[in-house]
């Protein structure tokens, strides 16, 4: 857990620690997956995107969210 704590709070990219950046990217991926699913009703271009792209975005969001969770919990363990 020390590795995750050092990675989360010891590495700064700009004004934010790494845990914040992982959280931002996770939120962006979840938002992209939701917009892709909802946007199929309105856009003909989004209808051509294969469903596997939505699935890949969901899997990526789960991986990033798990990493974000481990980084957050490592501060208290």
Explain what this protein looks like in three dimensions.
With 77 residues, the protein is mainly alpha-helical. It has one domain. It is built from 4 helices and 2 strands; from the N terminus they run αββααα. A two-stranded antiparallel sheet has the order 1-2. A hairpin with a 2-residue loop joins strand 1 and strand 2. Helix 1 crosses helix 4 and helix 2 runs antiparallel to helix 4. The radius of gyration is 16 Å and the shape is elongated. The N and C termini lie close together (7 Å). The relative contact order is 0.19. The model has no long low-confidence stretch (mean pLDDT 90).
Provide a short characterization of the protein structure:
Helix content is 77%, strand content 5%.
